[in-house]
Amino acid sequence: MKTVKSPFKFKGGVHPDYNKELAREQPIEKLPMPGELVISMSQHLGAPAKCLVKAGDFVKRGQVIGEKNGFISVCVRSSADGKVVAVEKRLGPAGGKADAVILDTAAKPEGDEGNGLPILPPLDWKTASREDLLKRVEEAGICGMGGAGFPTNVKLNPPPGKRCEYLILNGAECEPYLTADYRLMLERAPRIRLGVEIMRKILGGPAVRIAIEANKPEAIAAMEKAFADIDGNVEIVVLPVLYPQGSEKHQIFATVGRVVPEPPALPIDVGCVVENVGTVAAIADAVELGEPLLERVTTVSGDAVSQPKNILAPCGTKYADLIAFCGGEKGPVAKLISGGTMMGFAVSTAEISTTKTTSGLLLLSPKRVVQYASQACINCGRCVRACPMNLNAAEIAKAVEADDIKAAEDAHVMTCIECGACSFSCPAYRPITQFCRRAKNSIRARIAAEKAKAAAAAKK
Amino acid sequence: MTIAIVCIAGIGLVAAITLAIADKYLSVKEDPRIGMVTAALPGANCGGCGFPGCDGYARALVAGTAPNGACAAGGDAVAAEVAKILGVAATATEKRVALVKCCGTRSEAIRVGDYNGICDCNVAAMTAGGDKGCTYGCLGYGACANVCPKGAISIHDGLAKVDKRLCIGCGKCVAICPKKLIELVPASATIHVLCNNPDKGPTVRKVCGVGCMGCHLCEKNSGGKEAGHFTFQGFLAKVNYDNPPTDGQIVAKCPAKCMAEDAHFESGH
User: Fold this and answer.
1) How far is A98 from chain B (nearest CA, A)?
2) Is the Cα torsion angle A250, A218, A144, A275 positive or negative in sign?
3) Could you give all domains of chain B from N- to C-terminal order, each with its CATH number?
């Protein structure tokens, strides 16, 4: 095991204000069980889970309440004991509505004391087969906890003919304000090591790269200590501080120098699997303790919250409960953001609940929120310089503004990772990322329509 | 100089002869009726008939693969003219116009956010579902108005309104609306429910002062369930346009104030 400096630097990127000192020194605190949980069936990427319970049912902590519904999907388990009050469509952070189970955690079935046993039988990873371990990851409902929520069991099971050569541990946490992964690396380093060993077994012994940004020396030290006596090809790669260093594709380039081709190519096509440190710890818990993914660490921060904290909260906690646990709001809140400031979603209400991918909740005061008015492009090229995907963002934005989605597609808008570096650097306050998202949505809708048409024609 | 003149004249002559021969042997015979039908159609190229423009529809009509009467823009007058040219009976069509099923203006429906991104409903809908408290309601950023080939839709007080006289029923607005709240309704129908929120009454009231609560009063006042003027989806009343109500009284009696008698507005065109 050795520590090395990142051998490659990707082009572009920006340096937003990190503001991590707000919550950096706050140890992870466990949230007392809230009275009501709203557990969404769509906490991951892909098809939402199929709800298995109805109003009036009593559920136990860890019970499967949402069934995996398709290949790219994971199951949802209840985060607490309680009674199902209702199953209804609730607004998620990204704006879509999905089925959600509303759980009253105070109501318990009579005479049920619980048996004190773990939810799933613990496995000894050294003797368990690869298939058993994969199955455990799947039944524990684990999906990528960095933000995208890709089902982990799919990621850990490369299609035939493809081999994982590098397992990259994503501890970059390049989003401003967020410190959840940082605290996790400090406080739960042995769990992360165990998770890495399990994943290494599942993936057939790839080399391991632990990628951490240089502004987290304590986390690097903690990882060095935890991994000191590990055998095999393991390196801690210290990345330069640059947004979006935590992006999967950029991390692969920064650590092993490989470039993931345009979509639909995936990291596994260049022999890499990237996992967030939170996901790795969750895998360790699922295997060794039999504890499915029911809770996660969420950073509640920003200059409009009384006491920024890193909170271990059950999935399905309402934002309002998290804010109350932090002592409430400090002064007026201009913006409530689910996630980080660069890629998070501004939400309109604290009634939305956390999911397996909620890494942060930010409350920003009016001082921190710029009310901009978008102006015409001045052709300065700052967005082009900032774009880490080598896109001509200015041209794409102009094409979309003129409703020319075809031109945007020709300019490879589908490779856009929506990191927001272009909008961040635009002196004319143009919502360039939003233009890209609009183009991507239109193109996806068109492709879906074409597919449906082809399927209908094939049926005829 | 002379050589140049002779050369150019020679090339011209050869080209002219080639063209004359090509015209004689390679000409494509086109049914003259296609031109006549194209001329009879409105020429708006709106695509509402499902064919690529008026010319495409004319070709399909002449080929006999399209029903006469699919042109919503032209209506019965055009259908009759086409029938004269082609000698096929016109299928009677009822003119259909777009109806925006929302009446939550800025003063009635609360806005929960301050949206200052791209002025387009589809983009706004991608951003936390839009800034309107009611997630089913009209966002008022004019995606429908932008695609309307006739300029029949305009935005008033954060709400899209359709001018019935200009609307040709092409359905482009229906397709683009992210909230799917525009419907093509018979132009003759006068009573409409202007709400798209199927939630329970108290939930609706929290976000909009004029949302349908599903109280069924409109149904009761129009002759009960047997009369069949209304259907219900959750807690939302829907006009049955196959059998629309005609009594304007029920509009005034709606406690939610989400009904209107001829909800279309007339722009100053």
Assistant:
1) 12
2) positive
3) 33-86 (1.10.15.40), 96-261 (3.30.70.20)
- Tell me whether B130 touches chain A (CB under 8 Å): yes
Across the interface, whether the CB atoms of B127 and A95 are under 8 A apart is answered yes
Mean pLDDT for A360-382 is: 91
Residues of B in contact with A435 (CB under 8 A): 118
Is the Cβ of A372 closer than 8 Å to some Cβ of chain B?
A: yes
Q: Do A163 and A16 lie in a common domain? A: yes
Q: Of A310, A314, A276, give the one whose Cα is nearest residue A103.
A: A314
Assembly ipTM: 0.76
- Nearest Cα of chain B lies from the Cα of A84 at a distance, in angstroms, of 19
- Please list every residue in chain A whose beta carbon sits closer than 8 Å to the beta carbon of residue B117: 431, 434
Q: How many CB pairs below 8 Å do chains A and B form together? A: 50
Q: How many folded domains does chain A comprise?
A: 2
How many CB atoms are closer than 10 A to CB A269? 14
Rounded to the nearest angstrom, the minimum Cα separation between B262 and chain A is 32
> Are A266 and A389 part of one and the same domain?
no
The sign of the torsion formed by the CA atoms of A49, A55, A60, A61 equals positive
Verify that A16 and A154 share a domain, yes or no.
yes
Question: How many whole angstroms separate alpha carbon A106 and alpha carbon A34?
Answer: 9
Compute CA B136 distance to the chain's CA centroid, rounded to the nearest angstrom: 19
Give the separation between CA A22 and CA B55, rounded to whole angstroms.
Answer: 66
CB-CB under 8 Å, A346 with B129: no
CB-CB neighbors (< 8 A) of A94 in chain B: 128
Say whether B135 and A97 touch across the interface (CB within 8 A).
Answer: yes
Nearest to A353 by CA among A140, A125, A35: A35
**Which of B123, B125, B128 is opposite residue A346, by nearest beta carbon?**
B128
- A441 closest CB neighbour out of B113, B126, B135: B126
Best to test chain B binding among A347, A348, A375, A405 (most B CBs inside 10 Å): A348
Question: Where do the DSSP E strands lie in A2-156?
Answer: 2-5, 28-30, 36-40, 50-51, 58-59, 64-67, 76-77, 82-91, 97-104
Kindly indicate the confidence band of residue A244, based on its pLDDT and cuts at 50, 70 and 90.
Answer: very high
Name the nearest CA neighbour of A149 among A352, A301, A359: A359
**B109 contacts B137 by C-beta, under 8 angstroms:** yes
- Residue B54, pLDDT above cutoff 60: yes
Domain finish residue from A223, A257, A289: A289
Rounded to two decimals, the pTM is: 0.82
Tokens read off for B239: 């006009």
pLDDT at A136 over 60: yes
Residue B21 has pLDDT above 90, yes or no: yes
Q: Which of A289, A322, A347 is the last residue of a domain?
A: A289
A284 and A393 both lie in a single domain: no
- Structural domain range at position A433: 382-459
Is A398 a member of any domain?
Answer: yes
Q: Give me chain B's average pLDDT, please.
A: 87
DSSP for A62-97 reads: T-EEEE--SSS---EE-SSSEEEEEEEEEE-TTS-E
pLDDT class for A110, splitting at 50, 70, 90? low
In a domain, A202, yes or no: yes
